[in-house]
Amino acid sequence: MKAALKNESGEFDVEEVQTPAIPHPDWVLVRIKATGICGTDLRHWKKDEPELNHKIMGHELAAEVVDIGSQVTGYKAGDRVVVETLLGDGTCEWCRVQQYNLCPNLYKVRMETVSRAFAEYLIAPAEKLHLLPDHISFEEATVLDTFSVSMHAIQLSGVKINDTVVVIGAGPIGLAQLQLAKLSGARVAIVDKVESSLQIAHELGADLAVNSKTQDAHQQIMNFTNGKGADIVFECAGGPSMPQTLPQAISYVRISGKVVIVGGFDPGDIAIPLPWQHIQMAEIKIITSASYAFWDIHSEMKLCLDLLANGKINTKKMITHTFNLDDINHAFETAQDKESSGAVFVALQV
């Protein structure tokens, strides 16, 4: 099969590699139709990472079932599916209660199997598949992984009707967070530096979209919240932005409010000065959110799929660019340079 392999320069070489075989009777083989480039992928772009050299990456995908194991029921060749790419070891305490996003071996396991979406074929346990309704395109379905991350954060936040919410970052995660917060009945402001992303946020229902490069974001948020600060702030930028955005989140939230960290940290020890006395005296709650799994008895990805199927969320408007897998390096350049390209969610057709 064709696959994009990460090289020493941190870019990709598209090569022919062995098609994976179904390893267990309850697994399936799928033909990937579309996949997406997310913020986590971009943090690996043009970095020499020996542990990822000659590896297949990617974890946001929609596909068609090609073959099934002997014990698989409910799926057949030709079925259109979205594949959930969080797979733990299945034996730890967290996996046993469907909190596999917290599995200590999560990345080791998923990188060897389900998190290889920059390729033509992929293997996965049948339980990680969700059937796509005919009216949802493969490209639209690739954004469901993004929405699932935001769904998990929404659940942890306890957002309520008429809460005031601030979302920092108008990338795919932030725009998904915006839509889910609006569905929950909140008033939502979103803050970013890229005007094209903020325009899409407006179109997706933001009550206020603030360009922190050209406007006094703190004053805008205080005006939006009648000087009180937001009930909940979602930090959705992450990565190298965190030393700036996390203090901003603290400054936007009200006394006894919540800051939910959704954007990912870079690895290693990171020192970010914060006003800890204020955080303590104001009883500000800092909540960390990691990927997604189940909430109660419900798969968070299936919850998002149902919302998409019923027209409650919009993934199509978030897809700004589409490339072929052969053009993956150009796609990454476009996704990285969003200020000039206007990119939000960049999809690859495989």
TrEMBL record:
<dbReference type="Pfam" id="PF00107">
    <property type="entry name" value="ADH_zinc_N"/>
</dbReference>
<dbReference type="InterPro" id="IPR013149">
    <property type="entry name" value="ADH-like_C"/>
</dbReference>
<keyword id="KW-0479">Metal-binding</keyword>
<dbReference type="InterPro" id="IPR013154">
    <property type="entry name" value="ADH-like_N"/>
</dbReference>
<dbReference type="InterPro" id="IPR050129">
    <property type="entry name" value="Zn_alcohol_dh"/>
</dbReference>
<dbReference type="GO" id="GO:0046872">
    <property type="term" value="F:metal ion binding"/>
</dbReference>
<dbReference type="InterPro" id="IPR036291">
    <property type="entry name" value="NAD(P)-bd_dom_sf"/>
</dbReference>
<dbReference type="Pfam" id="PF08240">
    <property type="entry name" value="ADH_N"/>
</dbReference>
<dbReference type="InterPro" id="IPR020843">
    <property type="entry name" value="ER"/>
</dbReference>
<keyword id="KW-0560">Oxidoreductase</keyword>
<keyword id="KW-0862">Zinc</keyword>
<protein>
    <submittedName>
        <fullName>Zinc-binding dehydrogenase</fullName>
    </submittedName>
</protein>
<feature type="domain" description="Enoyl reductase (ER)">
    <location>
        <begin position="10"/>
        <end position="346"/>
    </location>
</feature>
<dbReference type="GO" id="GO:0016491">
    <property type="term" value="F:oxidoreductase activity"/>
</dbReference>
<dbReference type="InterPro" id="IPR011032">
    <property type="entry name" value="GroES-like_sf"/>
</dbReference>
